[in-house]
Amino acid sequence: MAKRRTAERREPTFNPPSRDADGEGNKPRRAGARRKRRSPLAAMLYWCATLSVWAAIGCAGIIAIYAAKLPPIDALAVPKRPPNIAILADNGALLANRGDTGGAAVRIADLPPYLPKAFVAIEDRRFYSHFGVDPLGILRAATRNLIGGGAVQGGSTLTQQLAKNLFLTQERTFSRKIQEAILALWLEHGYSKNQILELYLNRVYFGSGAYGVEAATRKYFGHGARNVTLAEAATLAGLMKAPTKLAPNRNPAAARERATQVIAAMVQEGFITDAMGMLALSHPAEAVHEQGAGSVNYAADYVMDVLDDTIGAIDEDIVVSTTLNPDLQAAAEKALAEELDRKGAAFGVGQGALVAMDPDGAIKALVGGRNYADSQFDRAASAKRQPGSAFKPFVYLAALEKGLTPASVREDAPINVKGWQPENYGHEYLGRITLAKALSQSLNTVAVRLGLEVGPKAIIKVAHRLGIVSDLAPNASIALGTSEVTPLELVTAYAPFANGGIGVQAQIISKVKTNSGKLLYQRKGASNGRVIDQSHVAMMNAMMQETLLTGTARKADLPGWQAAGKTGTSQDWRDAWFIGYTSHLVTGVWLGNDDSSPTKKTSGGSLPVEIWSRFMRFAHQGAPPQPLPGGIWQGGAPQDFNPALPVATINLPPRPVGAPFSGETQQGTSGRLAPPADVPGATSRAAQAPSSAPVEASTGSSGLTPPGLIPNVSEPRRSHSAPAGGRNFFDTLFGG
Asked: Is the distance from CB of 338 to CB of 371 less than 8 angstroms?
């Protein structure tokens, strides 16, 4: 019994576990104790850590999404900077920069230390300590934008700004900021801090079309970045906030205020001393303003046109040395612009051009218009206009090459060429006259007679041989300069008269080098050889010198120098020219209107001669006078005329100021000189002329166009007379 009780007492009993409130079974008390000890701080940390992990995962996902839109990292490369073309004068001075940047790249080692530090102080004070992205800066900017309700902006490091300039657009979006940060990390991984800063200084936009610190310094202060002052450096760094609004040449007060903030930041960062800061504030930067009409840009544009044919494609910064003389360029601009400002309205002239060239073809000055800012069209090299009587020297040279001389005599009298009746100005005719007098007085009828005598094709051949490159129409009116040419090619074609008869090619580029000094092109002496016989050079100089002494250009004023040249005025007073030369320089002036509207009777012997004289007097200062090469022809008695008929004595009546001399203009009676044959409506008018119209001095219907194509003449006639009962020269030529 006792044993049974004992066994029963030892028999295990089953007690189901109790359930607490959450249905769990009893657990050790220690777990419950730990749960009770978790503090609010621990819970907050726990949840912060959890959220951070998820935020990191989310950011990684966002970064991956936007990174996928970028090129593969291993394919990324810093885009090559667009090449700059520095254009230098003949003395090595910088005339202009061309290219997308507006200035050459510079090394940070060549800059004053305070220049890059100014950008660091105001744009990215932790530049040398962050890894491309500044979280504190981003947080500060984000907080500011959140409070202000604005778009994402600010907080970008210099590296991020560089990344944006190199790879991205300027839009301000969240996605662009993410890509900017990714690219900044890539830049920081592949480049040193100084390399990044150098890239930044050479790529960032400074306003006014200037990319890079070199272009900006030259644009705003007129010198290179290597010579920048502390005040100028602060002004440049301040531009980064708003390049257009803070440009010192547009808003000097705002630019100065911003520069003060930059200097204060530099002092605070220890980049400069208080004394340096005070000195910079007491001598603020002063922006330069372009003086004059900016005509050097016409010359620079022409250099770029020529450069394409000289060295081809450009893939690095280059330096182009030119033949341009900066003093002559400035003098040419001043003479043209000031004379037009004073007298342009009175003469009805809106535009002009001037080209000055050494007798060897080197262009020393090229002004393509009144003001480059108003119009960039280059009238010196690109505008084709009728040269009028300035073309006559080629007619007379063709006559000399057929055996005539300045003393040869031709008739100045009315002439009818199949209904076309060119006239002298004022309807004055001087009878039998030497070629020398006829050219100096610019008599139209004599020029036309010579043109018919030698043949238009011979005239064209002479003009092209001397340097005219434009197409010329082989008709009777070519003797009066109705085929259009540019001022540059006309000046080039006059150069052989000034150098003794050698044909030249207009040149403006003398040398091209890379920035590192590698020679890409060097112009060597070259010419087209002799294009005028030496004896004919002397004859032409004699006749064109007379133009300045007693003829249509006698207002030309160049004391001490032997000079020659020819005036020209086109139909209806649309173009006024003077091309004149010495042994030192050949200069041509054109005046007119871009729409080809008539001027107020401006002749080549008026305003163009005045501009030419003003420029040439400056250009010849200090140069010892030299005679024209080839000398001046000394002729005898007039040739090929009846001694019983004396050579006409020329006594010109008093002339109103600004009016042309006899024969200077082709106008005469309105409509008497028709346009060249390719002008619309010309053919129909020409058809009205009877084929048997008299050709010698005669009257008849006016306003008819000259015949289109006239055969060349193989055997020139010395006289317009014919044997009794025979056919005269013009009858033979036209089949009359």
From this structure: no
pLDDT level of residue 209 (50, 70, 90 thresholds):
confident
- Report how far residue 494's alpha carbon sits from residue 484's, in angstroms, rounded to the nearest whole number: 16
| Residue 255 tokens, joined | 């630019």
Strand pairing category for 519-522 and 509-514? antiparallel
Amino acid at 633: W
Residues 426, 368 contacting (CB under 8 angstroms)? no
Q: Whole-prediction pTM value?
A: 0.74
Neighbours of 414 (CB within 10 A): 17
Could you please report the per-residue DSSP string of 537-593? HHHHHHHHHHHHHTSTTTT---TT---EEEEEE-GGG-EEEEEEE-SS-EEEEEEE-
Cβ atoms of residues 50 and 42 within 8 Å: no
Over the stretch 219-242, which tens digit does the pLDDT of each residue have? 999 999 999 999 999 999 999 999
- Letter for the amino acid at 638? P
Q: Is 389 a catalytic residue?
A: yes
Q: How far apart are CA 227 and CA 289, in angstroms?
A: 18
Catalytic site includes residue 702: no
Cα-only R_g, the chain: 41
From 156, 295, 321, 389, active-site residue: 389
Residue carrying structure tokens 């004919």? 536
The closest alpha carbon to 705, from 725, 675, 726, 669, belongs to 675
CB-based contact 211:205 (threshold 8 Å): yes
Helix axes 114-123, 230-238, angle to 10 degrees: 30
Check if the beta carbon of residue 555 is closer than 8 Å to that of residue 655. Answer: no
**pLDDT tens sequence across 464-483:** 999 999 999 999 999 999 99
Q: How many CB atoms neighbour CB 10 within 10 A?
A: 7
Q: Look at residue 42 and give its three-state secondary structure.
A: helix
> CA 129: distance to chain centroid?
45
Cβ–Cβ under 8 Å, residues 378 and 662: no
493 backbone dihedrals φ, ψ, rounded to 5°: -75, -20
Q: What is the pLDDT of residue 730?
A: 34
User: Residue 36: helix, strand or coil by DSSP?
Assistant: helix
Give the distance, in angstroms, between the CA of residue 413 and the centroid of all CA atoms in the same chain.
47
Quickly list DSSP for 354-374.
EEEE-TTSBEEEEE-SS-TTT
The CA–CA distances, whole Å, from 284 to 255, 280, 587, 642 equal: 10, 6, 44, 82
Alpha helices in 312-455 (DSSP H): 326-347, 392-401, 435-440, 444-454
Q: What is the pLDDT of residues 53-86, one digit of tens each?
A: 666 665 655 555 555 555 555 556 788 888 999 9
